[in-house]
Amino acid sequence: MSEGIEMSVEFSKAEGREPQGLKDAGHHILKCSNCEKPLCDIWVIDPNAQITEKYWANCPYCGDKSYQQQISGGVAPGGYARPIDGVSNEDWPLLTLIEDYLYPEDGSIQLKIIKNRS
Ligand SMILES: [Zn+2]
Prior knowledge:
Elements: H1 3-15, E1 27-31, E2 38-46, E3 52-57, E4 69-72, E5 74-79, E6 96-102, E7 109-115
Parallel strand pairs: 3-7
Antiparallel strand pairs: 1-2, 2-5, 3-4, 6-7
The structure holds zinc ion (ZN).
């Protein structure tokens, strides 16, 4: 068994999921509709989950916001990390953080984004 498989099984136990139900089904990067900066990364970790939501984010750079993006499945939203060639993605610096989740009356989910100052 490879190290990567062992790690994913451990993670699955921690999340209370069956290992075969957890996989990388893709990342959705929400970008600002005005300045086009990447705002956050919504990672689909459970594509079989019967969940569809519309996500959007405010822009901490220009004050505008992203378009709404409809995403199906169980997700793990996070801040946006800028990729660096030759560097492991675990060490990519986070440029933004999700400070809060807001639920507007239209049924969408707003990710409240702030700049990462650390
Ligand atoms: Zn913007």
